[in-house]
Amino acid sequence: MLDSNSNSLPDDLCDALQWRYAVKKMDPSKSVSEDKIAALLDAIQYAPTSSGTQPFKVFVITNDDLRTKIRAASFDQSQVTDASHLLVFAAWDNYTDARIDSVVDHHAEERPGTREMLEGYYGNLKGMYLPRTAETNFEHAARQAYIALGFGMLTAAQMRVDTTPMEGFDPSAVDDILGLGDKNLRSVCMLAVGTRDAANDWLAPMKKVRKTDDVLFERID
Amino acid sequence: MLDSNSNSLPDDLCDALQWRYAVKKMDPSKSVSEDKIAALLDAIQYAPTSSGTQPFKVFVITNDDLRTKIRAASFDQSQVTDASHLLVFAAWDNYTDARIDSVVDHHAEERPGTREMLEGYYGNLKGMYLPRTAETNFEHAARQAYIALGFGMLTAAQMRVDTTPMEGFDPSAVDDILGLGDKNLRSVCMLAVGTRDAANDWLAPMKKVRKTDDVLFERID
């Protein structure tokens, strides 16, 4: 039960969790500052991922032509073009030897003297991942992107930046629009980042609804 | 580039992103207070999910016998028993008519006068979800759990509570241990919540490594 008086949540975080909602109508005249976008991207960049692979890429789109095309592939949802920035999260379409090697190389460079340990660790990872189907590996990569999506949304809320997480789009169409196939990426979710137009948003005045503790959690002591 | 001087991230959030890491060695003598666990669960409860379905359940386990069994199914990773609380995120194994109806009923109860609109909206959702395979729906539900996992980890870090996100376990074995099959749930990830034993953790002194901006992001203006 979210209540700033009853637990240890920092007040600002508690307020942010109540303040945020999935905005349905953005005000296209109110842009989010590049400073805040940079801060939001920092949170995405520093989100943890499985074995530090960060198996995705994030496209930060302000281009109007592209966003018009993406909106057409997103059931014409207005946030795609009314937001100030559209983030498209695209996960690796598979794990490969070369992609995991590039993680090893980067870590070894940043952590001198660890190459042997890293090669052992990621060698085991390859043993698990490489025999799996591309679809299984893609789904695993997609889940990692969702951790970063979570970090991004919660950080945005704490900066009082509005967001709309979006899955209601045709992934293949968005992949084509952004040329993701050539990059071995597949779009998994989008995050519209902008400013709520509360007066014209049917969802804005609605009470926030969440499952109660007894439905969502089970304690086993 | 994470730097509290260069952008708009609240200082505490910037510090939290640097402070957190996936703890490899927890100190079993240092429990996390129930207040902080409640706050962490609040963040999980208030994380956004697709159409507000919250298609997962979180088991909060302190029971030693159960954790010993889960540790055996988790490559003997010590955090499972050395953490103070083990959270197991379990996603719905499918979307069904009845489960979506229960979401409609709950929302209609909390938002009087919206039942007709809700039935229309979730009717469309059923039209999309119910014809899909159970595996596709499970993967979609799992992704939603990962958003909540992200909210939980970032919130914990801001309270200076340590966590270890864990995927290195045998999901079927954990499902059996917790009897999840009977509940139409499947385990997807775990979060050990405890207190780092930094002196005995090989990862604690390591530099944090993240992909650089130019690798992780692509701006399209």
UniProtKB/TrEMBL annotation, chains A, B:
InterPro entries: NfsB-like (IPR033878), Nitroreductase (IPR029479), Nitroreductase-like (IPR000415). The keyword Oxidoreductase applies. GO terms for molecular function: oxidoreductase activity. Keywords: Flavoprotein, FMN, NADP, Oxidoreductase. It comes from the Bacteria. Signal peptide: none annotated. This is Putative nitroreductase. It comes from Octadecabacter arcticus 238.
